[in-house]
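Hi U.,

Before I forget, here's the chain from the pilot set. I'm dumping it here mostly so it's searchable later in email.
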Amino acid sequence: MNPLLVSFGALAGTLAIELPLAALLAPAASGGARGRCLATALCANLVTHPVALALQTELGFVPLELGVTALECALYALVAGLTPARALLLGVVANVVSASCSG
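Structure:
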């Protein structure tokens, strides 16, 4: 199978898991928070997913997932404006669930 199609399929699967989780775990009370979380989740995954696929054989699965999760948590706090605790919850839950489904 074409490696590019496999990569796109893996990204689509990740987005199908992580975007609904971002919407679910985003704070509902503050205006626009859910949209900011969704946009941040989409953009973060468009960056981290291809990099992770490229570096997986060199770094190994666990160190790579820890790095991806840390970066995405930071983006949820800095870009989406979530509290550090909420950003950590969202980043960890989204990445644990999507990593569990990928293998």
